[in-house]
Amino acid sequence: MIRDVTGIHKIRMLYLQLLYRCNFACLHCFHGERLEHPDVFSAEEAVGLIRVMREGYGTEAVTLLGGEPFLYKELPQVVQYAGQELGMWVEICSNGYRIERRLTELAPFIDLLRISLEGVADTNDAIRRQGGYHAALSTLNLARELGVTTAATMTVTSRNIDEVLPLARIMQRFGVVQLKLHCLRPVGNAARHPELAVGDPTAYTRLREDLRTAALSIEVVLDADLSEAGAPDERTAPGGPRGIERIEADPRGALTMSCKAVGKDAHAFRYEKATGRIVHQPTPTDELTLGVPDVVYARA
C-alpha cells in the first residue's frame, strides 16, 4: 500500500513503539498524555508488522522503543524473531533504568543499545527522573561487560545545551560509539514546557563550533534543525523517492515516515493489527498531503 501511494519501494528501518507505558515522565516526551494509554503491540502483532516490512519493503533493521521497551513483557520474542529468524539489525532505545536482568538475558541478540540522557547528573534527572543518570551509567557499564555496543541520544534544550560537550566526553569514557542530538519538537509534554525551547539560535552555532574543535573520539550526529537557519525545507512529493530511511509505528498502529510528524497524528498509513495489513487513511493534515520533510542528521 505504501508503495502504491508513494512510489517508495525500500524502507531501511522500522522504528517500532511497542507500548506507551513508561517508568519516566520526561518533560520533553513527545507522547505526552499518551504515556497513560494502554495501547500496546502483542508479540504476534509486532512480529506481523516486522514481517510485512521485511517482505514488502526490504527493511533491514528494527529499533524497538516505547514508552520504555524493557517494560514490555514479550520483548525477548520480538528481539529474537527480528534478529535470529530474519537476520535484521536490532536496536533498542531505552532510559536504562533498572534493566540489568533483562539486558543480561537479551545481550546476545542486541546489535545496539541506545540510552537516552538529557545532560549530566542533576540536569538529566530534573528533565527525566531522579536517579536516572546514575542508573543509565550503571547500564552502560553492564553493557560494556556484556559486549553490547552502546550509543546515546539527547534532545537539546535550553536547560542542557551547555552540557552536550561534557556529556559527550563522559560517554566516550563509557565506550559509547555515538551521541545523537535531536531538536526539541513542541508536541506532547514539550508543548507544556515552552521554557525548554532554545531561545537564541546562535547557541546552535556555538555548539557546532565547540563540537568541531573538541577532538572527540565519539561520533556526534546532529539534527539539521539544530542551526541558526534551521534545516533546509526539502519537501518530498508522493511518487518521488524509491527508498527512505525509516518509518515509525506507534502502539496504535499509526505509521509515520517523518520524525517531524511523529506525535502529531499526521500519519497517512496505519498497520491494521487485526488483519495484518497496511492501509492508507489520507486526511487534509497528514504528512503526505502537507509534504512534511523528514529530519536530516549529519556528523558534527
What attributes characterize this protein structure?
about 300 residues; TIM Barrel; alpha/beta; 12-stranded mixed beta sheet
Description:
- This protein has 300 residues and is α/β, with parallel strands linked by helices.
- The protein has one domain (2-299): Aldolase class I (TIM Barrel, Alpha-Beta Barrel).
- Helix content is 28%, strand content 21%.
- The protein contains 9 helices and 12 strands.
- The chain has helices at residues 2-6, 43-57, 75-85, 100-106, 122-127, 132-146, 164-173, 202-213, 287-290, and strands at 10-17, 61-65, 89-94, 112-116, 150-156, 178-183, 219-223, 243-249, 254-256, 269-272, 277-280, 297-299.
- The protein has a 12-stranded mixed sheet.
- Strand 8 (243-249) and strand 9 form a beta hairpin.
- Helix 2 (43-57) runs parallel beside helix 3.
- The longest helix is centred in the N-terminal third of the chain and has 15 residues, at 43-57.
- 42% of the residues are buried.
- The mean pLDDT is 95.
Write the layout of secondary structure elements.
Layout: H1 2-6, E1 10-17, H2 43-57, E2 61-65, H3 75-85, E3 89-94, H4 100-106, E4 112-116, H5 122-127, H6 132-146, E5 150-156, H7 164-173, E6 178-183, H8 202-213, E7 219-223, E8 243-249, E9 254-256, E10 269-272, E11 277-280, H9 287-290, E12 297-299
Parallel strand pairs: 1-2, 1-8, 2-3, 3-4, 4-5, 5-6, 6-7
Antiparallel strand pairs: 7-12, 8-9, 9-10, 10-11
Helix pairs in contact: 2-3
